[in-house]
Each structure stands twice: as structure tokens, then as C-alpha cells.
Design goal:
The protein has 108 residues and is an alpha+beta fold. 29% of the residues lie in helices and 33% in strands. It is built from 3 helices and 5 strands, in the order ααβββββα. It has a 5-stranded antiparallel sheet. The longest helix is centred in the first third of the chain and has 15 residues. The protein is globular and about 35 Å long. The chain has one domain.
Amino acid sequence: MQNLVDDVHTLNDLRAYVHRTLCEKENLLADQFTMMESRLTRGSGDCGLQFTLHGPRSVRLSAIWESIQNTVYLYDAGGERYAMVRLPRRLKSADSEVENRCAERSAV
């Protein structure tokens, strides 16, 4: 898993990493299941993203990216956290308003 984390440089890389990791957890074919994404807010600002993958037979896997700590929390189909992964570097992306707003709020 560490090798995959080292390849996460942008928000799109994060999306791909989370999708691939969640699919591997339940042996799902990645091209068969899509992932939804929701912004998380703290106070009046964004502070991360929630990813949800709906599999077959009401299987639901999820992950939370907490942008201030730059950490991904992975949850299995039972809702139990099975992994916490700290990303080695901040994300670089044109659509990185989530992490920029969170960094601004934590600096205040």
C-alpha cells in the first residue's frame, strides 16, 4: 500500500488511490463500480472529502481525506476503520480549493 501512496501527488491521484484501495478491500472490479465524493466542512470552511463506493448487494465502502493532517481514513463494509494512511506530501492540483481553504483556516 505504501508504494501506491507515494504516487499520490494531485487530487485526481488521491481519487484513483482511494477507489483502487476500496475496491481491493472487497475484491471488487474497479471498472464496475463508481465512487461518489462529498466535501466535508468544519465551521464555515471545507476541511476534506468523503468518498463512498457502492458495491453489489448493498456493500458500501468509504474513505475520509482530512486535508489539514493530510490523512486518509479507510472504512470497510461494516463501517469499521481498517486503515489510516498519512500522505507523504501535500496535494498539488488545479482544483485544490479544499486544501487551500482548510490550510487558511488552520493558520488563523
